[in-house]
Automatic annotation (TrEMBL):
Coiled-coil region(s): none
Protein name per Swiss-Prot or TrEMBL: SoxR reducing system RseC family protein
Pfam families in the record: RseC_MucC
PANTHER family associated with the record: PROTEIN RSEC
Transmembrane as UniProt keyword: yes
InterPro entries, per the entry: SigmaE_reg_RseC_MucC
UniProt keyword Transmembrane present: yes
Keywords per UniProt: Membrane, Transmembrane, Transmembrane helix
Length: 138
C-alpha cells in the first residue's frame, strides 16, 4: 500500500482552473537551530501546477498538495536511475568498442542530451501521470 506525500503550499495564481502553488522544499539541515549561521542549510521554492476545477480556492490561500509515494518512486526512476543506467551502459559499450576512455566518457555524457529531450517531448503525458490533489488546510 502506498503512503501519501503531503506538502504545504501557498496559491500564487489561479487561471483557467489551474492553480500555481508555491511549496518550500527544505533540506535536512533546515530543522537545525544553527541553520541561520550555517551555509550548508538549503531551502528551495518550487511552483507546482494543480487542477482546481470545481473548488473555491483563492490566491494567497494556504493549501496542502497530496500525492501518493508511487509517483515519487517513478519520478526518481525517470529523472535519475534510468539515465544513470544509460550512461553506464553506453560508457561500457563504447569503451569496449573503441578502447578510448575519452570517447567513451564524452559519448556516455552525450547520451543524456537525447534522453532528456525525449523526456521533454513527453512532458504533457508525464503531467497527466504525476497528479497532485489540492486540499484546504484545517
Amino acid at each position: 500500500m502506498s503512503k501519501l506525500i503531503k506538502h504545504k503550499g501557498i496559491i500564487k495564481d489561479i487561471r483557467n482552473g489551474i492553480a500555481k502553488v508555491e511549496i518550500t522544499q527544505l533540506s535536512a539541515c533546515s530543522g537545525c537551530h544553527a541553520r541561520s549561521y550555517c551555509s550548508a542549510s538549503d531551502k528551495k521554492e518550487k511552483i507546482i501546477e494543480v487542477s482546481c476545477n470545481g473548488n473555491s480556492f483563492k490566491t494567497g490561500e494556504t493549501v496542502i498538495l497530496i500525492s501518493n509515494s508511487d509517483i515519487e518512486r517513478e519520478a526518481l526512476l525517470i529523472a535519475f536511475v534510468y539515465p544513470f543506467f544509460c550512461l553506464v551502459a553506453v560508457l561500457i559499450i563504447v569503451y569496449f568498442l573503441s578502447r578510448n576512455e575519452t570517447i567513451a566518457g564524452i559519448t556516455s555524457l552525450a547520451i543524456l542530451v537525447p534522453y532528456y529531450i525525449i523526456i521533454g517531448l513527453y512532458k504533457k503525458k508525464l503531467k497527466k501521470k504525476f497528479v497532485f490533489s489540492l486540499h484546504k488546510t484545517d
